[in-house]
Amino acid sequence: MADVILTTNTSTNQILGTENDTYFLAEGILHYSTSATSAVVINGSDESRFLVVNGTIMDLGGSAITDSTVIDEVSIFIGQTGKVQTSPLYRAIDLDGDFNSITNYGEIVGGEAIRLDGANNEIYNAGLISSTFGSGTTTIETIIMDGDNNRLVNDGTIIGESAIKFAGTNFELNNNGNIVGQEFGIEAQFAQTLSATINNSGSISVVGGDAFRGSRGTDDFTNSGTITGDMDFERGVDVLRNSGSITGDIEMGDFSDTGDDTVINSGTISGDIVFSGAVLVSTVRNSGLIDGNVSLFSGNDLYVGTGAAIVTGEVLGGLGNDTITGSTFDDRFDGGDGNDSIAGGAGDDLLAGRDDNDTVAGGSGDDTITGDNGDDELRGGSGNDDVDGGIGADSITGNSGDDTLLGDAGNDTIFGNTGNDDISGGADVDILYGGAGADFLSGGDGNDFVFGGIGDDSLFGNNNDDLLRGEAGNDTLTGGGGSDKLFGGTGEDLLIGGAARDVMRGGAGADTFVYLAATDSTTANADRIRDFEQGLDRIDLSEVEDFVFVGDNAFSGTQAEVRFQTTSSGLRFEMDVDGNGTVDMRVNMNNVSTMTVDDFIL
């Protein structure tokens, strides 16, 4: 067939049947068809056809440009004044071959604007490509590229119910213009194992649908532009890089995904990021803003926030042994199941290890840390931190700042370090170290070991048989219930043994041994003071009763009295609390041969 050059309006169908045939439609010229045969038909058995459209091809009875046999290397150029249009029932351009190219500076409009079924095809758009919206349950695509190794570059505008659909491997899309969809912006053929590389520096927007729906293969998506709409990456090994703006939820994987998925964000994501299915490793590297939650799911996952990265919601580790690292922002991290490693970094962070054996570090800032179940290692870092170990044998460190540290259930070890800390062991056998500062330490239930450290500390054993050591500073030691051992250390200490048989040693300094009730040291469960130093230490009985000291004489039986006695096992002092002449309280002494009224506060 000969070349076709149209300089006047025509309704004749044109056929390009031999190699290198050329179709040229001049500016302002209308090529019009209402028959079922396309306005331009490409056929034959060889390759290479060329079409230049500067006028308008209008076909209301079928596709405007189509091939009736599979022809490769068809080149279509549509100029700024060119237009190819069909009715909503047909495709504007429909080609089956390979290595075809379409360049559009004008307008392509159809029920489906372009369908390319072959491989290694290319589309460049700097104009407008649009489809009429479908009706009912069928989605109408504007551009369909079905084969492998296809490429689309958009510097113009693509509009449709589903703007772009691909169904091959190694699909490449570079969008610098506008993609507008009603249901999908870009979609892969559903339930197919494909692959795509997509770069967006323009705009992709969808109202009420997905800006992107990926395949079950490998999708690599880079955005430096603007995306409005959800993104669903389906299955496979997927990567999303964002330095632009995304408004919508992002789902990485589906219920049966087994690939490693990654999100790298230095821009803004306004929506939740959810990894789902059996994703092997979920990775999020964030140095921008995520205005929503991040849910990592089931693998040994990684979240890293760097610089001033922000997640306004919560980072959820889910299953697996996760590593979650925060930024200078106020982070909220939840490790979920698994042996997680969580670091808050700077900022006032809210961190939870949850189940299994977690390592959680608050970093700088006033952090709130919860270990929950498992044997956890929890470190507050600098700042005034609030740490709760939860169930399990936990190791808790406050570091600098005025910290509140709770071991809760389990055999916990707690270090306050510097600052005025409030430390509670909770249930079971705990070891508490106050460190430097005026600390409050409470062992709770269990046979606890409580060490005050440097500073004026308050130590409480509470129930059971506890060991309390005030160490340096003017400390107050209260044993509570149980047979406790109290050691004041250096400084002027107050030692209160409480109920049951206690052993007390004041240590260096002027110490006071305090009794608050007659039940604190009975004849059956008498306390022992091991290092009473006369002229320096004193015994305070003023809260029990108004006693009268009678030396080593017998009780008169007329008033509350205190006396001392020397026996073969050493000296002891005794109290008649109710004035009936019998012994109600007894305390054994070491290294004392006599006592005077000056030894007591009565």
UniProtKB/TrEMBL annotation:
Residues 486-601 form the Peptidase M10 serralysin C-terminal domain. Keywords: Lyase, Repeat, Secreted. The keyword Zinc-finger does not apply. It is an enzyme of class 4 (lyase). GO terms for cellular component: extracellular space. Its EC number is 4.2.2.3. The keyword Cell inner membrane does not apply. It is found in: Secreted. SUPFAM superfamilies: beta-Roll. Its cofactor is Ca(2+). Residues 330-403 are annotated as: Disordered. GO terms for molecular function: calcium ion binding; poly(beta-D-mannuronate) lyase activity. PROSITE patterns: HEMOLYSIN_CALCIUM (PS00330). This is Alginate lyase 7. The gene is algE7.
